[in-house]
Each structure stands twice: as structure tokens, then as C-alpha cells.
Design brief:
single chain; alpha/beta; six-stranded mixed β-sheet
Length: 1016
């Protein structure tokens, strides 16, 4: 390793960038290292070169670099040149031999300082610490304080300083400086470690009582937390059981309320319908006037008849007198008797007519009631079937089977459209049909309506895997790229000409052409017909046929059909979106059906009773009519007999003309008039009877409606009362639930979700509540503990643990540091003694060479070791003449400690006990001998000497120059001098001069090249 180059910018008088290049080899001998001379008049700034080298190597003493304050190293400016803002010095070292402990083959040490005081240290332009530079230089055996830079006052300084200070110089001279640095660091760390250990132990002593107290509280808190956890778990079970039970009851009550409310609404609707019907009858025009008119007409005719009867009675009286005159008194009796019987016949006929009208009315009423009875019976059958189906659906729903598992799977697959490309839709979505063919095509398609059409079999595989992964029911897929179908059988088209055949199923719906294979596969040759009769006429088994009602006839001859509830079979748009009834809806449906059945049964029983009563009444009327007819027949026979008797007792025509004269004609006239009036009266009576029958029908309808309305109103009132009772029960349950929720939020926290509470069924709630009370009592016994205790315990525990670990680490570190100090002491002592011996021998040699005789040697000053116990008894550091303190002395194994170095020198012919009595020149030469001995014994990579030869005469200068030449085989030299003899041995000279602007300038001269030029 050698000094390659020095760059100075803004340092002291070197305002401009100045570069000093140093050759590697001597121009006189290639085996020797170069000697560079720096010359110049006083004040030119040549010593600033040495200061720059000392400064860049980390010198911190302003005095040694001849400055008073930090920014004095920066060029201050002159009359013609402004001051610089920073100073920078870079030292270029060739490290190809890797003597410096760094990987670079060229090492550039840089120091830069700004006027604000900021200082930077760099190694190869990378920022480092001052310590890094000091350590690097120490390992390479040079530095700013070592013998590698010998300043102007250093020569006298070595002689004049104390033995203790000289010992520090020899530490560096013997090459143990790097170990001393490490040892000082170790001792400092040891001292700090012991201080930290003591502080940590003190803190630990303070923390232990607090930690014990906190630990006891934490144990109580842990016990409290365990109880609280158990309490919380029991509370979750208790409150969960209570809440879920309340929820179940509330749900049940709500279902009951919904059911009863639905019943109430249904009954109110029926009641409203009855009221509308009654209102409609009430709004009809009053028929009382019509009846009065008919009655007036009837009374008028009756009055007219009565007048005629009076007249006829007078005529008959007259005729009776005449009959007496001719001796035919019995003829008058016979005629009167006949008239009496005929009047009786008329009465019987009238009664018979009335009875027949009533019979007809009863028979008509019976027919209507029987028809209504059959309708109610049929409705009851339908309602009962629907009820059975609804109860089956409800049982399926309660069992978890919605019969919609496939549809749930279909919906799940359709939701994957954005993730699985190629899902086209359900069969039902892709086909459009007329409402007329909905039942037929839905039956023919069956469960394939919910099948999903996909682009390819790959898409189908992805969908099937998705269903498996999510445990969803199977779904039918129709991959368009794999479907294989047959075209319609043209032979089957002949069936379309048959009566009742409508067309092929696949041709009765519309779809996009690309889906043709799908629908051909589903429907095939299925033919739609109007009804089963047509299917039978065409021929069951001839082809697959389906009716408009949804009855199916397979080609195998199998037939399927029957009653279907509305909406049971339909072609739904978007098969995956088909809705399924909930349990609550099914319960409502069941309740309504039961209510309808109950009402229907009552109506049926009432109708049955009426029918039976009417049948009895009709039988009675028929019997009565039969008796009346028998009476009529008897009376008619009696009249016929009387007619014969009258005919036999009839007076002769002569007597009639004589006695009766025109009485017969008058009688006949009145009888004709009366007969005509009887006809009108009969017609009027029939009209009145018909009117009365109609009115009777209406009255009965009103009575029936009123009775039904009353029954319905009673049921509405009853169901309203039940709804109110359910509402009250529901309100009580909801209030209980609210109170329970408030209690839960208070006990378990406001963020508690009631649904998350335990659903586990609790057999004995009272026992659980007793356990909760016990746990709460235990918590009261433990008492409240501030939750901050946890954080405090954690902090104290962590701090205690940290300090405890730190104590262990410090104790281990102290032991390691003690071991390191001992090892370093051994290395330092060993290396120092070996190097000191070598330097001592070289010092004697160089002293004799410089003085041409005489004797010189170095002696170590040693002192007994002072241990820590002695210091404890009152010995201070001031009594110890050496750098070791009480911490260091604990690790010294020897009984004696080297504390200083004395120089013993006696020039030829003199006996000197103290070098202080030597002359100035002798002291200078002695110092130079010592420096040369050190360089010879422990050569530095380069040595800078700043006017160390100033006090030498010419003869001694020649000796000094010769010594430098000898030492150049071991070290590179940079000599700042005025001595011409020393200049003569230099390989290159740098001249330094200062101009009027106050800036140092340089001029280099290669002496070898100059000599060669002169010789030429």
C-alpha cells in the first residue's frame, strides 16, 4: 500500500483544487519507495499539506492543525478572492496489496466541512463515521496522531513530554493502537454495562413488590374472568333458551294471528257479499202497489159478481114461487142443492189449484235446493282434496322438502352466468307459448322445463362440478354441441287430419332456431289434442298425445290424467324463479279451506234439512190434493145425479111459457155474466197467487240471506274476539321479549345479537337461573378489579421481564467484555513488549549512527498494580500513573503495570542522566533517531515529515537524508523541508508559493527527469 494522491479544495490557503501526486517507486532504485519533497518559502502554505493529511485522517484537535475555531480550516478569502463555503481533502491510497482491511484496490478517504459546522467523512464517496476511518487507519498502522505524521514540534515534543504521555506515543508506534482502541471501547462498554446493570437491579428491586401485588390481582381477575366466562355461557344458554322459546311462541302466535286474520278477512268478504245481496233486494222497486192494484181488480170483479148473484138470487126466488105454483117444489130444492154443490166444487177446485201451485212451488224449491246441495257437496269434495294436498305440502315443507330442491339448484347455476360462460337459460325461459296450450305443453315437457341449456358439454361439466362442490341437487343440462335428435315423423302427420287433433307440440311454441334440437328432444312427435275422447277416437297408443287439460296418453298405451288444482301444471317463464309457498302461506290456505269446509258442511246440512222438509211437505200436499180430487170426483157425481133429477122433475114447456115466461132467459143471462166474471176472477186470482209465490220466494231468499248474514256476523264476531285474544297474547309475548332483550343487553352487552345466543334446549330453567345467581354472588365476593390492572400488570411484567433479561444480558456482556479486555491486554502486552524491544534495539543503532557513537536506550516505567479494593480504601485515580482505572485493574494478571517510557541517551564523550540537559540539536537528533527507529521497526505505509530537519546543521542533515534514503525501502516519505540536502534525495519536488490573492499554488519537478535533461 502507498500514498497515491492528495486532493485539496478550499482547505486553508488552498482555495482552488490542488492535487499532489506521489510516485510509487524511487526514481533511483526501483526497490525503494518514493520520497517526495514539498518546498517553499515561509508562509507559502506548504505545512498546510501536512495539516490537510492529518485533518483528513480524523484529527480533532484544532491546535495541532494550527486553527482556533472549526471554520478556520476553510479558506477565508482575500482582497481579490471570496471565501469558500466548504473545505474538502481527499487522500488516495493504493490498496492493491490489501494491507488496508477493505475490499477496494483504491481507497479514497475524504473529509468535508461546511461553514455551518456540518462535517462529513467518506470512504470511496460513501458516508462513514470518524471511528470507521480511525479504525481502518489503525489496522493499516498509520494515523493522524502517530509517527506516520511528524510535525514541526513533534521532535521536541517526544523529548519534552512526560513518560506517561510518551507511553501513549509508543502504543501507536508499537502497532497496538488498534487494540488500544478496541480495549478502550470494551472498557467503556464495560463501564456503561456495569452502570446499567446497577440501575437495572435497582429498578428490579423497586418493581418486584408492585409486580407481586399486581400478580395477585391478576390471579383474582383471571378467577373473575373464568367465573364471568362461565356466567356468560350460562347466561347465553338461559337467555338463549328463553329468547328462542319466546320467538317460537311469538312465531306461533303470529302464524295463528295471520291465520285467524285471514279467516276474518275471508268471513268479512263473505259478509260484505251477503250485505250487498240484501241491499240489492232492498233497492228493488216496492211491489205493494202492484199487489193493491191486483187486489182492487179482484175485489171489483168480486163485487160485480156479487151484484149479479143478488140479481140471480131474486130471479131464482121468483122461479121457486113459480115452481110451487105448478107443484114442482122439489125442483127448486134440487137446483139449490146443485148450486150449493157446484159452489163447493168451485171451492175444492180453488183449494186444489192453490195446493197444486204450492206443490209446484215446493217442487221448484226442492229442485233448486237439491241443485245447490249437489253444488255444495261438489265444492266440499274439491275443498277437501285441496285441503289434503295442502296438508301434504305442509308436511313436506316441515320435513325440509320444498319439492323445489331442483329449482334451488337451477337458480344457483343461473347465478353463475358471470363466472361460467356458456349458460344460456332454462328450457322454460327459451320457449314462448300461447296460454291456450300451457297445460298441455307443460305436462308434455314434465320436469325438463327446469332443465338448463348450455353451449357445450364442457360448460355442463363445470356446472355439474359446481353443484357437487356446493352439495346442490342434480339438474338436467342440454349441451347444444352434443344433442342428437330425430326429425318429426311425417307418417304421424296423418293424425293431424283427425277430428280433435290440433298439432305437434314442438310446432305450437316459438323459440330461436339454435334451440330447435332442445325442444325436438323434449317433445319429439307428441301431438296436442282437444280432449281424451278425441285421443280415444284417434287411437290410444298410436302416438304420444296430450290434451289441452293436461291428460297424457303415451305411445306405450300408458295414460295419465285426473283432477288438477289451478296452476298445478303451467309453463312458467323463468323456471328457476318459480315461487314455492311458505309454511305460513300453507297454514293460511289450510285454515281457509277448513273454514270453507266448515261453512259448506253447515250449509249442506241446512239444505239437506230443507230438502227433507220439502219432500215431506210435497208428500203432504200430494196426499191433500189426492183427497181434494176424490172429494171433487164425489161432488161431481152428486152434481150429475142432481142434473138427472132436475131433468126428471123439469116442468113442461107449456108451463114454462105460462109460469116462468122470460125468467129462464134472465137466469141464463145472469149465469153467463157470472161465468164470464168467474173466468176473470179466476185469472185475477191466479195472477195474485203468482205474485204471492214470487214474493214468497223473495221473502225466503231474504230470510236465508239474513240468516246467513247473521251466522256470518256471529262467526266474524267470534273470530274477531279470537284475533284480539291472539293480539293481546302476542303483545304480551313481544313485551316479554323486549324486557328480555333489555336484560340481555345489560348483562351481555349492547352488541349482543339475540340470534347468536345458544339454541340448546334447557330442561330445567330454574336450576340454570340458580347457577347464574351463585356465580354472580361469587363475583360480588371477589369484588371489582380495575381492568387497567391488566395493562399495568402487562406493562410492569414486560418491564420486569425486559429488565431481568437485560440484567442477564448485561451480566453475560460484562463477562464477555471482561474476557475481551483480558485477551486484549495480553495481546497489547505481548505485541507492545516485542515491538518495544525491537524499537529499543533500533533506537540504539540509529542514535549511534546519527551521533557517530554514544549510547541510547529506552526503559519502561512500571508500577505495582492497584486493585479495586485499594481504591475502595480511598486511593484515587490521581495516584495511579497510568491510563488504567479501577475497572481495568481487575483484569490485570501481572503484578506490575507499564505506565511510562523513559529515554536514556548519552552522546559520545558525555554521561547524561536526564535528556533534558541535552542541547537543542542533541534533543532533535535524539528524537529523529527514535522516530527513525520506530519507522524501521514498525514501518508505516507512508510517513509525512513537516520541517523536522529545521534544527540540523549541514552534516547532520546529510546523515538524516541518508537515513531517509535507507528507510525509503520500508516506507514512502513526504518531506516538507527547506534543507537542500534533503531536497537532493527526493524523487519529486513540489514547490508551494502564495500569490497576491492569498492562494497557495504548486509547481512539481521530477528530479530524475531534470537530471537527465541537464546531462543531455
Amino acid at each position: 500500500m502507498y500514498l497515491q494522491k492528495l486532493e485539496i479544495i478550499g482547505f486553508k490557503s488552498f482555495a482552488k483544487k490542488t492535487v499532489f501526486e506521489f510516485p510509487r517507486e524511487s526514481s533511483h532504485d526501483k526497490t525503494a519507495k518514493s520520497i517526495t519533497g514539498v518546498v517553499g518559502p515561509n508562509g507559502s502554505g506548504k505545512s498546510n499539506v501536512a495539516d490537510a493529511i492529518r485533518w483528513v485522517l480524523g484529527e480533532q484537535s484544532l491546535k495541532l492543525i494550527r486553527c482556533k475555531k472549526a471554520d478556520d480550516v476553510i479558506f477565508h478569502g482575500s482582497e481579490t478572492k471570496a471565501r469558500q463555503g466548504f473545505a474538502e481533502v481527499s487522500l488516495f491510497l493504493n490498496n492493491e496489496d490489501k494491507e488496508m482491511d477493505i475490499e477496494y484496490s483504491e481507497v479514497v478517504l475524504t473529509r468535508r466541512v461546511y461553514r455551518d459546522g456540518e462535517t462529513e467523512y467518506l470512504i470511496n464517496k460513501n458516508k462513514v463515521r470518524l471511528f470507521d476511518i480511525l479504525m481502518l487507519c489503525a489496522k493499516a498502522n498509520f494515523g493522524q496522531r502517530s509517527y506516520s505524521i511528524v510535525g514541526q514540534g513533534m521532535v521536541d515534543h517526544i523529548i519534552n513530554i512526560s513518560a506517561f504521555e510518551r507511553k501513549e506515543f509508543f502504543d501507536e508506534a508499537t502497532g497496538v493502537k488498534q487494540y488500544q482502541i478496541k480495549r478502550d471501547q470494551a472498557v467503556n462498554r464495560l463501564k456503561h454495562s456495569r452502570e446499567n446493570l446497577e440501575k437495572s437491579n435497582q429498578i428490579l428491586v423497586e418493581l418486584e413488590p408492585r409486580l407481586r401485588l399486581l400478580t395477585r390481582q391478576i390471579k383474582k381477575l383471571e378467577q373473575r374472568k373464568e367465573i364471568e366466562l362461565s356466567l356468560r355461557e350460562l347466561q347465553r344458554q338461559y337467555y338463549g333458551a328463553m329468547w328462542h322459546n319466546l320467538q317460537k311462541n311469538i312465531t306461533k302466535q303470529r302464524e295463528e294471528f295471520n291465520i285467524k286474520d285471514a279467516l276474518k278477512k275471508d268471513l268479512e268478504f263473505s259478509l260484505n257479499e251477503l250485505q250487498i245481496s240484501l241491499a240489492k233486494l232492498a233497492r228493488e222497486e216496492s211491489r205493494k202497489d202492484i199487489f193493491n192494484d191486483l187486489q182492487k181488480e179482484f175485489n171489483k170483479l168480486t163485487a160485480e159478481k156479487n151484484e149479479l148473484l143478488k140479481e140471480l138470487t131474486v130471479i131464482k126466488g121468483k122461479m121457486s114461487l113459480e115452481y110451487v105454483k105448478v107443484g114442482k117444489q122439489n125442483l127448486s130444492w134440487l137446483e139449490n142443492k146443485k148450486e150449493e154443490i157446484e159452489a163447493r166444487i168451485k171451492e175444492i177446485k180453488e183449494s186444489l189449484r192453490n195446493a197444486e201451485n204450492k206443490l209446484i212451488f215446493s217442487q221448484e224449491t226442492l229442485r233448486l235446493d237439491e241443485t245447490k246441495y249437489r253444488e255444495v257437496e261438489e265444492s266440499l269434495i274439491v275443498w277437501q282434496n285441496n285441503l289434503n294436498a295442502a296438508e301434504i305440502d305442509l308436511a313436506r315443507l316441515k320435513g325440509g322438502d320444498r319439492s323445489g330442491g331442483a329449482f334451488e339448484s337451477v337458480k344457483a347455476v343461473l347465478r353463475q352466468r358471470n363466472f361460467i360462460e356458456g349458460i344460456l337459460g332454462t328450457v322454460a325461459e327459451l320457449g314462448k307459448i300461447d296460454k291456450m296450450y300451457e297445460a298441455a305443453l307443460a305436462t308434455a315437457a314434465g320436469n325438463r322445463l327446469s332443465g338448463i341449456v348450455v353451449q357445450s358439454d364442457e360448460v355442463a361439466v363445470k356446472c355439474i362440478n359446481y353443484l357437487k362442490q356446493n352439495r346442490l341437487s342434480p339438474v338436467t343440462f342440454f349441451p347444444l354441441n352434443k344433442l342428437s335428435v330425430r326429425d318429426l315423423d311425417e307418417r304421424s302427420r296423418s293424425i293431424l287430419s283427425e277430428t280433435g287433433a290440433i298439432g305437434f307440440a314442438v310446432e305450437l311454441l316459438s323459440f330461436e332456431p339454435k334451440y330447435k334440437k332442445v325442444f325436438q328432444l323434449i317433445f319429439g312427435n307428441t301431438i296436442v289434442v282437444d280432449n281424451l275422447d278425441s285421443a280415444k277416437r284417434i287411437g290410444v297408443g298410436r302416438e304420444r298425445m296430450v290434451t289441452l287439460d293436461g291428460d297424457l296418453s303415451e305411445k306405450t298405451g300408458v295414460m295419465k290424467g285426473g283432477f288438477r288444482r289451478p296452476g298445478f301444471t303451467q309453463w312458467f317463464s323463468g323456471g328457476a324463479d318459480q315461487k314455492f309457498a311458505t309454511q305460513e302461506e300453507k297454514l293460511k290456505e289450510i285454515a281457509l279451506l277448513k273454514s270453507k269446509i266448515e261453512t259448506g258442511v253447515r250449509e249442506r246440512n241446512h239444505l239437506l234439512q230443507e230438502v227433507n222438509e220439502l219432500k215431506i211437505q210435497i208428500q203432504v200436499n200430494e196426499t191433500k190434493n189426492k183427497g181434494l180430487r176424490n172429494d171433487l170426483e164425489s161432488l161431481q157425481k152428486e152434481v150429475n145425479q142432481l142434473n138427472r133429477d132436475i131433468e126428471e122433475n123439469q116442468i113442461s114447456p107449456v108451463d114454462q111459457d105460462r109460469y116462468l115466461k122470460n125468467l129462464n132467459s134472465q137466469k141464463a143471462e145472469f149465469e153467463n155474466k157470472i161465468e164470464a166474471l168467474d173466468s176473470k176472477i179466476e185469472k185475477s186470482r191466479q195472477t195474485i197467487d203468482s205474485f204471492n209465490l214470487e214474493e214468497e220466494k223473495k221473502r225466503q231468499e231474504v230470510f236465508r240471506l239474513q240468516k246467513e248474514m247473521q251466522d256470518c256476523q256471529n262467526r266474524v264476531n267470534e273470530i274477531s274476539r279470537e284475533v284480539n285474544e291472539v293480539n293481546i297474547s302476542l303483545a304480551k309475548l313481544e313485551t316479554k321479549r323486549e324486557d328480555l332483550e333489555k336484560e340481555v343487553f345489560q348483562e351481555l352487552g349492547a352488541d349482543t345479537k339475540m340470534e347468536d345466543l345458544s339454541k340448546q334446549e334447557v330442561i330445567n330453567v330454574d336450576s340454570l337461573w340458580f347457577e347464574i345467581g351463585k356465580l354472580k354472588h361469587n363475583l360480588e365476593l371477589i369484588g371489582g378489579i380495575d381492568e387497567e390492572v391488566i395493562n399495568e400488570h402487562k406493562e410492569v411484567s414486560e418491564r420486569y421481564e425486559f429488565l431481568h433479561n437485560q440484567v442477564n444480558d448485561l451480566e453475560k456482556a460484562i463477562a464477555d467484555l471482561e474476557k475481551i479486555v483480558v485477551e486484549l491486554d495480553e495481546i497489547i502486552n505481548k505485541n507492545f513488549n516485542a515491538a518495544f524491544k525491537k524499537i529499543n534495539e533500533a533506537f540504539a543503532t540509529y542514535f549511534e549512527k546519527i551521533f557517530s557513537g554514544g549510547k541510547a536506550k529506552l526503559e519502561l516505567i512500571q508500577k505495582e498494580k492497584v486493585d479495586k479494593d485499594a481504591l475502595a480504601q480511598g486511593l484515587g485515580d490521581s495516584e495511579i500513573k497510568g491510563p488504567e482505572d479501577s475497572e481495568i485493574q481487575r483484569f490485570r494478571d501481572s503484578e506490575l503495570v507499564s505506565t511510562g517510557v523513559e529515554i536514556m541517551a548519552a552522546p559520545p564523550g558525555k554521561k547524561v542522566e536526564n535528556i533534558a540537559v541535552l542541547s537543542g540539536g542533541e534533543r532533535t537528533m535524539t528524537s529523529l533517531a527514535l522516530i527513525c527507529a520506530i519507522i524501521d521497526s514498525n514501518p508505516a505505509p507512508f510517513v509525512v515529515m513537516d520541517e523536522v530537519d529545521a534544527a540540523l546543521d549541514e552534516a547532520n542533515s546529510e546523515k538524516f537524508a541518508a537515513i531517509i534514503q535507507d528507510l525509503s525501502y520500508k516506507s514512502q516519505f513526504v518531506v516538507i523541508t527547506h534543507n537542500r540536502v534533503v531536497m537532493h534525495v527526493a524523487d519529486i519536488l513540489y514547490g508551494v508559493a502564495i500569490g497576491d490573492d492569498g492562494i497557495s499554488k504548486t509547481l512539481s519537478l521530477n528530479l530524475k527527469e531534470a537530471e537527465d535533461t541537464v546531462k543531455k
